Description:
Number of strands: 5
Bound molecules: 4'-phosphopantetheine
Distance between the termini: 62 Å
Strand order of the largest sheet: 3-2-1-4-5
Strand content: 15-25%
Order of helices and strands: EHEHEHEHEHH
Shape: globular
Largest sheet: 5 strands, parallel
Amino acid sequence: xxxxxxxxxxxxxxxxxxxxxxxxxxxxxxxxxxxxxxxxxxxxxxxxxxxxxxxxxxxxxxxxxxxxxxxxxxxxxxxxxxxxxxxxxxxxxxxxxxxxxxxxxxxxxxxxxxxxxxxxxxxxxxxxxxxxxxxxxxxxxxxxxxxxxxxxxxxxxxxxxxxxxxxxxx
Length: 170
Ligand code: PNS
């Protein structure tokens, strides 16, 4: 009998904050891999709305229903983070063709850095293909309805942050 090692995938991103588009990908990824690790990039240069701790907290709340999904954060090279988890797959979502160019560049660079790690792309569900964290924050700051675009816990946290979001978006 041949022994097959478990499939471990990393789903990296900024998740500032997690949207229902991300969540859909997590749900589908959880069915494909034995373990799915959602990893938040620690990047001070991006001046995020939510701290890494807040983002990981929100992620933990929404993935609690998936037993094979874990939350982590990383800095430095993604391929090093993947190796530390013995992950063999990097999972990324593609919404429109505009995502493709950058994603291809990253996938090829990661493949050059670590040929044993495979990037797997999943197409965003069409119901979520227009959602981005950036647009959610913009629409919310201008008083638009974001119901159905983010999980309720994220919506509640955005409400708490409204004055800060409005200042940032101005
Ligand atoms: O949600 P995002 O902002 O599109 O995610 C981008 C992310 C985190 C996947 C990317 O910035 C990344 O992997 N950064 C880690 C640094 C790295 O490994 N760079 C070289 C690979 S191209």
